[in-house]
# Entry
Amino acid sequence: MLEIKNLTAGYAGKPVLQNLSLTIPAGQVTAVVGPNGCGKSTLLKVLAGILPGQGSLLLQGQALDGLSSRERAQKIAYLPQNRTVPEITAGRLVLHGRFPYLSYPRRYRQEDYGAAERAMARLDILDLKDRDLTTLSGGQRQKVCIAMVLAQDTPVVLLDEPNTYLDIAHQLQMMAQAKLLAAEGKAVVLVLHDLAMALETADQLAVMENGTLLCQGDAETVFASGALRQAFGVAVNRIQTPDGWRYYCTKA
# Structure
């Protein structure tokens, strides 16, 4: 379990997150939703150790601030929203997920190659292993980056808008993978803009507004709270189907 208590963080002295507290359980998918600029990406950067913050961050009762960057990377894997495209093969990028486990002189071991191959097989992209990243489509590159995170094999997985560039079939595959990771006992955190997908697939949602937590709970709790209407200014509706509730948004 990841516990965030009274977290404040921002840029150039301007706070984005303000006294935010949130609990992220192991074995569940948590979808972080909220309007643009509310602090979703900032939250993930603080958890990953990229951005400093004030407050308490505990992973299974251990303070994250007491960990080195290498130790933290063995606990938390993070896929940012925006990334450069290096001129290397897809397989080599996935291997980068194993870097926190390497000791000097930073040579990959057989177990690292195995972890990278398993991650690529999991996303059905082994055929891209020897392809240069610059020759891949946006969706293919996104899947390679997600495979890099899977190869890192950490108890906490942070994915900032992982469905970017993916078509609907691969978005559903991504959400299924997130659920499988959670079933393995990992705490999985996704920043999502698709409210319907978040409500229909995540175990819990964290609704943010202006750098604070507006509501946290399962789909039923969040839907009934009115927090989504408050945060987004839209009406969230639903209909019952044989496969469960299906959500859609209309003007408030």
Notes: The first strand starts at residue 2 and ends at 11. The chain is about 35% helix and 30% strand.
